[in-house]
Write a structure and sequence with these properties.
Helix content is 38%, strand content 18%. It has helices spanning 20-40, 57-69, 80-89, 102-109, 127-132, 156-160, 171-174, and strands at residues 48-51, 72-77, 93-96, 115-120, 134-142, 165-167. Helix 1 (20-40) crosses helix 2 and helix 2 (57-69) runs parallel beside helix 3.
């Protein structure tokens, strides 16, 4: 693609086939994946982790980014078509939550070890499955609530499931100044 008529003071140069709306959306989604993978929890090469909504806008970027880092993303999706999209984008393994038990599959995929971190933008409907997928002292990163907010949490459950940690970050927390 070629870039035409770019003002000298432009922040970014966009190819002609990328709209301003696409650029804005991908930038926000990309910054979200950045703070999740580098600031909220530092993913390591070969580390297996759970990421819900792997075929969504943030999820597809996360698949590619995890693959580039050499991390092993277990992505959840809601259909066979979305499973293919997530795999094509770089997900290491995919769980279709319509037909599979998330926590049981994570345990199976990891040979009973589970994961250090679960990234959850879904919320209410995946809350317990995320907690049940974590190792002792694992981190639950709740960064969205597509199925509704997680409310009425009994903090004792974090102890019962292995002394788990929970955080609720957002882009605004990480991007506070230029």
């Amino acid at each position: 693609s070629e870039v035409h008529n770019v003002p000298e003071n432009a922040v970014a140069h966009l190819p002609d086939d990328i709209t301003f709306e696409q650029a804005a959306a991908s930038s926000l989604k990309g910054m979200t994946v950045y703070y999740l993978f580098h600031q909220t929890y530092q993913l390591k090469r070969d580390e297996v982790f759970l990421f819900h909504a792997a075929a969504g806008g943030v999820g597809l970027i996360a698949c590619q980014w995890a693959n580039a880092l050499g991390a092993k993303m277990i992505g959840t999706v809601g259909s066979a078509d979305k499973a293919l999209r997530a795999k094509d984008a770089g997900a290491w393994e995919v769980i279709n939550y319509q037909t599979e038990d998330i926590a049981a599959r994570v345990k199976e995929i990891t040979n009973g070890e589970k994961v250090n971190v679960a990234y959850d933008s879904v919320g209410q409907s995946t809350w317990l499955a995320s907690l049940d997928s974590l190792k002792r002292r694992g981190l639950m990163v709740s960064f969205g609530n597509a199925s509704g907010p997680v409310t009425g949490v009994n903090l004792g459950i974090l102890n019962q499931k292995g002394g788990l940690y929970v955080t609720r970050p957002s882009l605004g927390v990480y991007v506070t100044n230029r």
